[in-house]
Amino acid sequence: MKIGLAQIDPTVGDFEGNRHRMMAMADRAKAGGCELVVFSEMTITGYPPRDLLDKPDFIDGNLAAGDRLIASVTGIGLIFGLVTRNQSHVGRRLFNTALCCKDGRVIAATHKMLLPTYDVFDETRYFQPGDQAVDFEFGDMRFGLTVCEDIWNDADFFDTCLYGQDPVAQLARRRIDLLINISASPYHVDKRDFKWRMYRNLVKKYGIGLVTVNQVGGNDDILFDGVSLVMGAAGDVRALAAEFAEDLVVYDTATGLGDIRTVPKEVEPSLYQALTLGVRDYFWKCGFTRAVIGLSGGIDSSLVAAVAVSALGPENVMGVAMPSQYTSQASKDDAAALARNLGIDFKVVPITPIFEAYLKDLSPVFAGREPNEAEENVQARIRGNILMAISNKFGHLVLSTGNKSEMAVGYCTLYGDMSGGLAVIADVPKTMVYRLARYVNQDKTVIPERVLTRPPTAELRPDQKDEDSLPPYDLLDAILHLYVEKIQPPDEIIAAGYPAETVHQVARMVDRNEYKRKQAAMCLKVTSKAFGTGRRYPVAYKF
């Protein structure tokens, strides 16, 4: 039979919109000769709905949309995800459910058995785990049906198994022909390679092919890359959907062949598309249309502006330069050149008169004290206020421009450069910012070359350089990767060859700036451990 792998970009809570997207994909699959079309986890609700699951009318709406979908699609089987109620009086009151239906009839239903509670996941907060793996016959084949995490517990692959049962092992003993997994597996850099190694281990171990359909799109800070696939029992890819785009690919079980899209192997194009989709989806799902960005003439704001244009179009992006007496002519020229190259609206609002007024009014309070970070931060906060004023006046969403390296160590100003509705690159280390900027320039110069070669500087005092306050970014990012993402203690990082004084300095800076990050704009998660949903440290602690 022909099976359609339908990856769509659902909006959380848009039950009717999601249903119509599914119906359109089902129609395409049927027109392509498919007998069965498979969607992603919780397709009806969108993932993750978080505490919306506590609202009874949310559950009712998702169930009603599921019923309408089942009744309205005929002539092709559907596998999709939704939320169902636990009718017993024991355990959580909801299930994360996958259904197989055809012509108005439910053929099979399974409840997700393995509920993740790490990183961005908190599924035991809402769901009761299923107690039995489900297989079923459809046409002349027997399928095993699983939901996302259900295939992530192979004792031969993971050093430590998080769960006491293995749904895939249960299904393999029943001699299924094909394993189906519906998924909402978030994207981060390097995760795809890990997933594919896990898939290969699984299919080779049991000699069973795998169909896995993943959600695509951005919901708040979490991004999904799609890349749904069919993997044969030998570990070869038989069908492959696009990354970061809705797609339908068809797999023929008779021939073992399917549609295969080209997916980049390099980090930079995938990461750039992830950020672009994250911005685009955040805007249209929240009802925003235009962005405003403070353009300093530096690398971070240049990259954010390029991403915004890719996501929204140049007509929907405004760049604002806010020079002070410390802003170099090079920075002014580079900000203007970037705006011309991108074709965006460009405004210049000098802040020197405002800054001087602040200093005059604060002089009685600051009397007898040497200038320090206080005066520097006043400038950042003036700029933040200007951007927020433009946002309020025109309805534009401010995109903040701080990178992960700066956010980690607190090299950023509350209510200043941290102001904004979405932090586009706050999970992108500074060294990766440069790599992405060069990717942007691969075909033509968009970001002025001088921006990529000048030493980075905040330009808040004369002749300021970032390395006056921070270790070199290549060293800083390497230490941050180990301390933040790998959660290694300083002693282990030092033992790996990093300078002890720098390691302890970085660790202290990360720890004492948690209070700033708690007040930051939501950031798009693109690494294994972002400063957001998946990292939950207290502000007040002694350790």
The N- to C-terminal Cα distance equals: 59 Å
Which whole number gives the mean pLDDT?
96
- By DSSP (H or I, 4+ residues per run), the number of helices equals 16
The tally of beta strands, per DSSP, is 20
Structural class: alpha/beta
Helix content: 25-40%
Count of domains: 3
Rg over alpha carbons:
25 Å
Report the β-strand fraction as a percent range: 15-25%
Report the CATH C-level class of the largest domain: Alpha Beta
Q: What does the oligomeric state look like here?
A: single chain
Task: Produce a short descriptive summary.
By secondary structure, the protein is of the alpha/beta class. It is 37% helix and 18% strand.
Give a description of the structure:
By secondary structure, this protein is of the alpha/beta class. The chain has three domains: 259 residues, 4-Layer Sandwich (Nitrilase/N-carbamoyl-D-aminoacid amidohydrolase), CATH 3.60.110; 197 residues, HUPs (Rossmann fold, 3-Layer(aba) Sandwich), CATH 3.40.50.620; 42 residues. The protein has 16 helices and 20 strands. The chain has a seven-stranded mixed β-sheet, with helices on one face. Strands 6-7-8-9-12-13 form a six-stranded mixed β-sheet. The termini are far apart.
Could you outline the blueprint of secondary structure elements for this entry?
Elements: E1 2-7, H1 15-31, E2 36-38, H2 56-72, E3 77-85, E4 94-102, E5 105-111, E6 134-138, E7 141-147, H3 167-172, E8 178-183, H4 191-206, E9 209-214, E10 216-219, E11 222-225, E12 229-231, E13 237-240, E14 247-252, E15 257-258, H5 267-286, E16 291-294, H6 299-312, E17 317-321, H7 329-342, E18 345-348, H8 352-366, H9 373-394, E19 397-400, H10 404-409, E20 422-423, H11 430-440, H12 449-453, H13 473-485, H14 490-495, H15 500-512, H16 514-518
Parallel strand pairs: 1-2, 2-3, 7-8, 8-9, 16-17, 16-19, 17-18, 19-20
Antiparallel strand pairs: 1-14, 3-4, 4-5, 6-7, 9-12, 10-11, 12-13, 14-15
